[in-house]
Design goal:
Blueprint: H1 2-7, E1 13-17, E2 26-27, H2 29-40, H3 46-62, H4 69-82, H5 84-95, E3 114-119, E4 124-129, H6 131-141, E5 157-160, E6 167-168, E7 173-179, H7 185-198, E8 199-202, E9 212-217
Helix pairs in contact: 3-4, 6-7
Length: about 220
Amino acid sequence: MESIGRAAGRRTAVAITAMEQPLGRAVGNSLEVAEAILTLRGEGPPDLEELCLVLGSRMLVMAGKAENTAEGRVMLDGAIKSGSALQKFADMIENQRGDGRVVEDLSLLPRAERTIAVRAVAEGYVCRLGAEKIGRAAALLGAGRWKKGEMVDPAVGVTVNKKIGDPVVRAEVLALIHARDTAPAGLIDEVEELVRSAYILAAAPVEKLPLVRGFVGWENDC
């Protein structure tokens, strides 16, 4: 992508980021929109907020709006604290014929009728959290397509409560499954097992993963 951008005469930077586990905590359309709104309120997951600041600050520099990424971060932080970032998102929703009130009232988003807790069967520290398995679990619920033309259910998905480096005690909630009332019991069992198998625990403490590993491209100018 960096080469394509450069060939087109565009300033291009590519972030190399951690993909071993889901970004943020939400996996599913409505769940992720709610998480994005919380982030614009300054209440989102730390990793998602940090990535937004890292990417956004570089975008401001590349667009000539900030002298450096430090200045860009100050600008972005100010937009969040003033509420202008949240208002801009509401404007975007309204311009696409959506209901901008959702940024103030998350209950307007589609919601699944059932919430099933996936609990730990042992104690330890999360050393692995398979993003691919969590994604498959959400897709089985209807949050994604297996083939072209399939309908996507915006309400369903998975929320991860524990991430790499977090301590876990037996019976603690690892994740929440958001499902429809009509979901067959066998499907719920399959999804629950898939989510539980995405978690691998270690006996000793585990360091949290660095979010941004580096940049390819225009980083020297930032």
